[in-house]
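for the writeup, i need someone to sanity check this before i put it in the appendix. the sequnce is what the collaborator sent (i think, or maybe the updated version? ugh). structure was predicted straight from it, no edits. if anything looks off just tell me and ill rerun, i have time this weekend
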Amino acid sequence: MAKPIVTVDGLTEKLEKAICDSPLTLTEICKRAKISRHQLWQYRYYSVTPNALVLARLAVVLNISTDYLLGISTKQTITA
């Protein structure tokens, strides 16, 4: 499998923590983010970096900041 062109340090770990902390099942997360379980599996275990749209969808579904996932901010959750 080819390595992703762009990687974000810590993204896999932060995404994994958000998934584990979520009350949603993996199936629900995938359905709401409009991705396959295979895609989610790649993001979690192969350090494949999701594109911007998928990252945004996952952030909304998991109620987590994209800035946190990308390492731009230490603030984890989204506040209104």
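The first helix runs from residue 11 to 21. Residues 7 and 30 are 21 Å apart (CA to CA).
thx in advance!!
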